[in-house]
């Protein structure tokens, strides 16, 4: 595909992934505050991305982010910021193409997941680890709790904490989904009291073909049928150690729910400016693989926090957009 | 007047049980979830998701198919429908309801 075709396919995949929907967000409608920090983040990232491209090409950025969903979600953020800065369309397109090309090297399935699969090129499924079967209810609740924790901790920037890939097909036509949760405690966003004591959790689950599982380019899971009753093999690895006792997983689940609740209760006490400052921290953290590689500052500048403190919510963007307005926004993009 | 409301089917399966309707700004500490609770919420909010763990179904008045709470319901393997206009006003906590995750309908029994 040439650059124009890449951008066109990217636009099409956005329509499918977002389904022309726009709804209120927790803890605040992100688009109502993004103007206060996304412009600054985008400007620094465009420079960083160009710099890395000169040094290692598209492959290097792919290596830094590991999961293509993280890259696709970052494109959205950068485009939003560049539009706020009224940056020319040529620059917007250039950086989007660079990031899309970075994702190419990570995937062995359709780049934009139009076939509902997100297969990583370097992932080799070890079938031996799927010989265990953990109680289905325990594993489903464990996943739900981890999703909850990631959204509580990273808000809409939850790609900083989770990635999902698959379905990898097996010989007997089953589907294997890999859910990876990372940065769970090794992040500067919350104090230790609010965090679980594990940093990386991977679950590998094999489902029979009574349920069709899809994953889009943003790592959204979708099902035709239900996963209930269709799990045939599973494996949980926490910080490198396999865990097979469902009771232990149940205890971890309760702790993850407890910590998520603590975070949410804390956020409920915050005003919108504090939420916006935390959102800025989260967005810079999303980009930390780039910043860390370049050995540059990973946190928002004082200038960004000043903008938030002196700024105001964009009331127009508090409104929920109609499907027609969302479609227009996608067209206005790259 | 029809006692069936239609939205978009997200997770398949069906169930019948008692509705637990959460309104905006409700004190969530007082929510009681039983073993036949179908959660009815105004929108996606992780604070509502906590109550999903012991529920048997989910109905959202607003929210994308890919919204967080719908994905959590999918991970729990429980039926879920979304974008059911006016449902948090139409149903009261304690009403017996039937949720059809295939057709995207909820019926007050």
In words, what does this structure look like?
The complex is a heterodimer of chains A (334) and B (109). Chain A has 334 residues and is α+β, with helices and mostly antiparallel strands. Chain A folds into 2 domains: 3-106 and 271-332, no CATH class; 127-267, no CATH class. Chain A is built from 11 helices and 7 strands. Chain A has helices at 3-18, 38-65, 68-84, 89-104, 136-154, 246-267, 272-286, 288-294, 302-310, 315-318, 323-332, and strands spanning 162-169, 175-181, 201-207, 212-215, 221-224, 231-238, 241-243. In chain A, the strands form 2 sheets. In chain A, strands 1-2-3-6-7 form a 5-stranded antiparallel sheet. In chain A, strands 4-5 form a two-stranded antiparallel sheet. In chain A, a hairpin with a 5-residue loop joins β1 and β2. In chain A, α1 packs across α4, α2 packs across α8 and α3 runs antiparallel to α4. The model of chain A has no long low-confidence stretch (mean pLDDT 91). Chain B has 109 residues and is of the alpha/beta class. Chain B has a domain at 18-25 and 33-97: 3-Layer(bba) Sandwich (Glucose Oxidase, domain 1). Chain B contains 3 helices and 8 strands, in the order ββββαβαβαββ. In chain B, strands 1-8-7-3-4-5-6-2 form an 8-stranded mixed sheet, with helices on one face. In chain B, a hairpin with a 4-residue loop joins β7 and β8. The longest helix of chain B is centred in the middle third of the chain and has 9 residues, at 68-76. Chain B is globular. The A-B interface holds A 17-19, 21-26, 136, 140-141, 143-145, 147-148, 151-152, 216, 218, 220-229, 257, 260-261, 264, 268, 320 and B 11-13, 43-47, 49-50, 52-53, 62-68, 71-72, 74-79, 101.
